[in-house]
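TL;DR need structure tokens for one chain.
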Amino acid sequence: MEQLEKVRKRIRLARLEKDFTQDYVGDRLCMTQKSYHRLETGKSQLKLDILFKLATILEVEVSYFFKGL
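>> reply
TL;DR here they are.
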């Protein structure tokens, strides 16, 4: 499995553990649910600034996304 795909899976896992919807997280990132879905599924580029914002929203350390890589 590609490392970036593993990061995206960790993002999804953290979101589900918080019981947050894609709509909720997308709204917090100032994007639509569809745009967030594309980010989470690899259909759009995951940028570093978004990763830091996601860590804040999902209440995890940025390093959480990279565990086990």
